[in-house]
Fold each of these.
Amino acid sequence: MGIPGVVVHVSGPSWGRSTRALGVRDLATGEPLAADTRMRVGSVTKMIVALIILRLVDAGDLCLDDEIHEHLPELSDLQVPRGVTVRRLLNMTSGLPDYTSEEFVEGLLVAPDRLWTPSELLEVAFSGSQEFAPGTSWAYCNAGYIVLGMLIEHLSNARVEDVARRLVFDPLGMHATELPPLTHGSSTLPDPRLRGYHRQADELADATRINPSWAWTAGNAVSTAGDLRLLVEASARGDLLQEQTHRECMSTHPVPDTTLGYGLGIANFDGMWGHNGELPGFQSFAGHDPATGTTIVVLTNLDDHSADTLAAFLRARLLDAASS
């Protein structure tokens, strides 16, 4: 498949539990990848952010149908319309304009060291127009999860990375996961030997230096395959949530032109619940099938939907094995 390096985790009652690393962490040195390598996981971060918000709902700090203006009145300056609720930000039905256009992503390769603030990201997003009236359709929106990150910090009076540690990482035992703080040095990975690659035409360009501040609470997390197993299984089961809140989380909106559904920070991939993520240099998939108890996690140091493709291949092979 042309992927430089990949970490694969598969577990379930029929398979046991296995985590394997294949390939290299750096094409130049050929150094092998390790199974416990910490990689950027992109939009799998959204499962983390959603869990934080839902735990704050359970604590009585807000309600899912609160208007975002009630908590962040400064958003009025960006002309955020009425009807943009916490629920609609979580399930991508807010209609807010996004900032991650192809032009924006290509610009990251030109100026990889730039430190982006949440306010700057929203300024880019709101240079465009509202996609649709809130609640009337569905569209993937990173800007909505930037707003949710601001909401977490406002409600908690603390940095989102510290809130994530207290409400998600520590309770689940995710000791190798972090939301890096927004600093000029946040492009540095825990393992400086690890390189991430972006496909340009027929060549692979090193995209490791790109400062992931541009993704913040939409995709800034660093984690391992083992930790993502803990996250996706807990998210699918509702381990950290009250029963009613978990039901709300798993209530999905259909994703247009697909068979998928999207809940509150978690997607239903035809019976396998979880999330995928991609940012320059890295791609990830984490999914759990409650019906079979099967979990698949894939981390790659190549973007270009590499983890999605490999996860789909693995799932098909497991289904074939189960039916034979």
Amino acid sequence: MAGKKPEETAPHSARRRAGAASGPVRNWLAAFPFVAALASFAGVYAAVFERLPEPLATHFRSDGRTDGYASVQGFLTGMLVMLLVLGVGLGVLVQLRRTAPGIRWSISAGWGVAALSGYLACLTLLVNAGVTDASEVRLPFWQVGVAMAAGVLCGGLGWLLAGPDERPAAHQPSGTERRLALGGGEAAGWSRCVSSPLMAAVSAVLLAAALAIGFTGDWMVGGGLLVGVVVVGAITSVRVTVDRRGLALAPTLLPYPFRRIALDRVEGATSRKVVPFTEFGGWGYRVRPGASGLVLRSGDGLVLRLANGREFVVTVDDAATAAALFNTYLDRARARQGG
């Protein structure tokens, strides 16, 4: 007995998948491509700065002709700030969310963005070098394809180097599966609204950007942003309903649900506290391994244990009552099937 050690020797490392990079390594992995892009950009600038026109050609049409300009200082400052902010921001994100799902994707996306933006920034300096009139600068459209290919390849390299994400901790619903006392002939319904000021702010920013870009002449991009406004706006305020048909989620101002979960797809319902950033990596309609749901704020959440082994989570007030009513209707449905 004296020489026997308990089996709990490394609880933290046991949760990490084989081959996953450690937290500090992932922080460096997140920042490295942006450091490399900055170094490359600085090197190219040092080599050609004496031959650059003022202003620079910085924006090009699909035929390669110049249609936008910026001062040399403005271009340098903009690129340096962008790469620094993205690199530091991704490093901080990885540090804060190192055990959350999706970090591997974030690192991969960072590598792709750094490669794409770094390539185009260096290329912009090179095509301007030796030209006296920036309007004469041409950038072949195939170079954009090369930049995108570089982004995809570097994104794949970042994915491989980051290794698998740690397995998310299993969140077991607390408490027992309660029932709501209803008579044999009685029926009940439960409904609450849940709203997110954060989603409202994001929707407002997207709308302002869509209108600004559209009125400056690029309605194709503006239209794409308007689609984002509709998608985000639809979940800014949502009515959650539980009744004899199951669960329904619908925009507060519209009567049409965008998500329904019928009783026959659920094994049981409970409620618990939900922390969106820790459990789902953010707010909104989220999907992660083993779970999905609408998480607009922290706090009480209705948790449905689905027949396929996954969970569906909705953060909403009075979730315990919703779960109890859902279980009551589940019992009735099973009794009918058994009878």
Amino acid sequence: MARWGVVATGGIAARFTQDVAELDNAQVVAVASRNEASAKEFADRFGVARAYGDRAAMFADPEVDVVYVATPHSAHREAAGAALAAGKPVLCEKPFTLNVREAQELVDLARERGLFLMEAMWTYCNPVVRRLVELVRDGAIGEVRSVRADFGVAGPFAPEHRMRNPALGGGALLDLGVYPVSFAQLILGEPARVQADARLSPEGVDVNTGMLLGWESGAVATLTCGLDGVSGTRATVTGTRGRIDLPEGFFDPDSFVLHRASADGPEVVRADSALHGLQHEAAEVAACLAAGRTESALVPLAGTLAVLRTLDAVRERIGVRYPQDAPR
């Protein structure tokens, strides 16, 4: 039984707690917030045994086996680092940190302490996506030539909203673009070339961003993210002998359509799983902890660092900087 302590009380923390409650081998036993009243309200709402107004107190709780960091991403480095320093394994929401420097600090700390650490990239744990990766690697669509993916929401967001605040890692790229970039790199690995363009807000964060990634194989990825229009949130992987189309909500699909040049027609592929949503990543963490692993094969730390290198490169191209970035 994995006994979870949850840091923060927002929407993703609530969803994680609800999903974990349905698992047989996991339970949220504690929640921590900087606001004790918020922690208590969350604990009462979801039947969590203990509420802390001090994260350090929860990290010291011997009944907490593993910590889920669900803060805004500008606080990931501090919260995950404190949990690791206290000896707790960590599942940290995406984007893992604001930049690759912060991510490397967490990875180094986890390895120094011999502790489990994983980015909560639930897409990688989804069984449909895992099946897609298997088919691509087995050559079902030949050599991959292109990946397309998008993620846009309508907004508008007020100037004081976190999505427009550079100090909070605002903008479309880290909040939404992390999904298309992570998907492309799941298929093709880290790109050799990164090009990007964007429209920035008055605060200096990206509102609408396009990315063109290139690999030495000749493959390319065209990716978009935005805060000013609802996109289809679909993805396509095209190869020399077919393609795979993921439906709306490509980051958490329940099926995809496989088109093989050698087949008479398209094939709808599904995965048989009793789990859903964030349960897949929680189950992966529980399995790793039970096996004594300090890293997930599904969401490897090297992959997380590689995605952040790409996000850093995109921000450099489009001129978005956060106060937490190292000075030039």
